[in-house]
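note to self — DONT lose this again. spent like an hour looking for the file last time. sequence + predicted structure for the chain T wanted, 119 res
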Amino acid sequence: MTPALDNVFAALADPTRRAILAMLLEDDMAVTDVAAPFDMSLAAISKHLVVLSNAGLISQEKRGRVKWCKLEPDAMREASVWMQGFGQFEAVNLDAFERFLEAEIQIGVDIPSGNEQDM
């Protein structure tokens, strides 16, 4: 993977940043409007916006006194192409997988957590 692709996936890994991108699907938004639905400071939202900008997923421009955010959908093209390479596999039914895991946990199957220390 290229560093640009790594940045896109790193930016998409956070649910707040994904929510911001979903909001920007509708239209350009002022930073204060982006921040409004979140229970965090404007500074925290600004940090999320920097990550999205660095990944090329959004652009920001100042119009008068207001800073605006705009979705840049072309930045996801490389990620989309990369993910389409996995399209040859059957789609995973996440609901069925979740039910399977719950059933396994209920019957006491030991699922490794990855936190075991070598003895």
